[in-house]
Design goal:
The complex is a heterodimer of chains A (176) and B (221). Chain A has 176 residues and is mainly α. Chain A has two domains: 85 residues, Rna Polymerase Sigma Factor, Chain: A, CATH 1.10.1740; 75 residues, Winged helix-like DNA-binding domain superfamily/Winged helix DNA-binding domain (Arc Repressor Mutant, subunit A, Orthogonal Bundle), CATH 1.10.10.10. Helices cover 71% and strands 0% of the residues of chain A. Classes of the chains: A mainly alpha (176), B alpha+beta (221).
Chain lengths: 176, 221
């Protein structure tokens, strides 16, 4: 079991020192996850705050049998950041020049090659059409809504929705 | 909902493309429908590797204190306060002597520092934190190294001409070291080179630089 998974077990038993240790271990990675979505340090701090409060209260819901602790922590912080983005009406300008530029480039997906799961996902993503793959990365990594992705990729909204749904379906089949 | 619609809802909940109301509906369904919750967990696992595309970044320094305050844990702070008052009551001269010694011998205070070591393609590989003279290394994306070679960690203080070895990087990618002779300071270069087994035979890096970064005060990068 990873260090993070062991700490979650202690946090579930209300061990506050374990929560602090988990914060030390994971906050830089998780703050980066929130920043990718919110692109604002104050808002990202709010997301990590909300996320860690949830982690403290719901650590018992983490089941090591069902996945890596890092993935569970990432999803808690992502959803906290997405909630903040939704409350703000996702008004983040999509014409931000720095938005999603690099992670969407195919060579940046090299990062995913670390670890077996990452290599498989990368292989499956590479089989998707470019805009399909970009839509999925823009949504997951940068928290863009359907209309924002449509604006960013210059595609009709209905097309984006259909492509993303189809892309997810292909990914699932490819990863099975 | 058909089985396919349920799976699509789980997928788009995880992807983050559901609007607020749909997202709330998905959470309510997760709470009462274990099968649907499992679909969500499966999607989180499928897409989790994408999390590594977000560049690690140090959170603001006061964030942990804020989390602790929200969780209603003010106890440690109260204990410290009570203790220090008792200290004052013990005798002013003892305190003054101690304080003088503290002021004279205290090493120059350095704020917590950090950097992310990047590959030549600007991908984050290691997180480095430095505080109280100690340097801690942790792999962000643990990766192996070619057979018969090891990774060696070095620090190059600003103005220095040669880096100082901080030791070999173990397979876990985690290392804590308090170097003698040099003290971590903002601007110090931290790098990892590829070296023969046992580390560089010359005391200077002999192999290529795999990862490099420069220490900055935490929270400013």
């Amino acid at each position: 079991m990873s260090e993070a998974a062991q700490l979650l077990g202690r946090i579930a038993r209300e061990d506050r020192a374990a929560l602090q240790a988990l914060y030390k271990l994971q906050s830089v990675r998780l703050f980066g996850v929130a920043m990718a979505i919110l692109r604002d340090r104050d808002a990202a701090a709010d997301a990590v705050h909300d996320g860690f409060v949830k982690i403290a209260r719901r650590a018992a819901q983490y089941d090591p049998e069902r996945g890596a602790a890092e993935a569970w922590l990432g999803s808690v912080i992502r959803h906290a950041a997405l909630d903040i983005a939704r409350r703000r009406g996702r008004e983040i300008p999509t014409d931000d020049a720095t938005l999603g530029d690099s992670p969407v480039e195919a060579d940046q997906l090299e990062t995913l090659a670390a670890g077996e799961d990452g290599a498989r996902l990368r292989e499956c993503l590479s089989r998707l059409a470019d805009k399909n793959r970009q839509g999925i990365v823009l949504a997951f990594v940068h928290g863009l809504s359907h209309p924002q992705i449509a604006a960013k990729l210059d595609l009709p909204l209905g097309t984006v929705k259909a492509w993303i749904r189809r892309g997810l379906h292909s990914l699932k089949e490819c990863l099975a | 909902m058909t089985a396919q619609e349920r799976d699509e809802m789980a997928a788009e909940y995880v992807l983050g493309t559901l609007e607020a109301r749909e997202s709330d509906a998905a959470r309510k369904l997760m709470a009462r429908d274990a099968e649907f919750a499992q679909l969500v967990t499966d999607w989180e696992a499928r897409l989790a590797p994408l999390l590594t595309l977000a560049a690690p970044e140090a959170p603001p320094p006061g964030l942990w204190a804020r989390i602790e305050a929200t969780l209603g844990d003010a106890q440690p702070a109260r204990r410290v306060l009570r203790f220090s008052w008792r200290g004052f009551g013990l005798g002013a001269s003892a305190v003054a002597t101690g304080l003088a010694a503290f002021l004279v011998f205290r090493p120059p205070a350095a704020p917590p520092m950090m950097t992310v070591l990047l590959t030549s393609q600007d991908q984050s590989a290691f997180l480095v934190e430095a505080e109280h003279g100690q340097i801690r290394l942790a792999a962000v994306n643990p990766r192996g190294v070619e057979a018969g070679r090891v990774m060696q960690l070095w620090a190059l203080p600003q103005g220095a001409t040669a880096p100082t070895s901080l030791g070999l990087v173990p397979e876990s990618g985690r290392l804590s070291v308090t170097p003698r002779g040099i003290r971590p300071a903002p601007g110090m270069l931290i790098e990892i080179t590829l070296e023969p087994p046992g580390g560089s035979p010359t005391g200077r890096p002999t192999g290529p630089i795999l990862f490099i970064g420069r220490l900055t005060a935490a929270g400013t990068s």
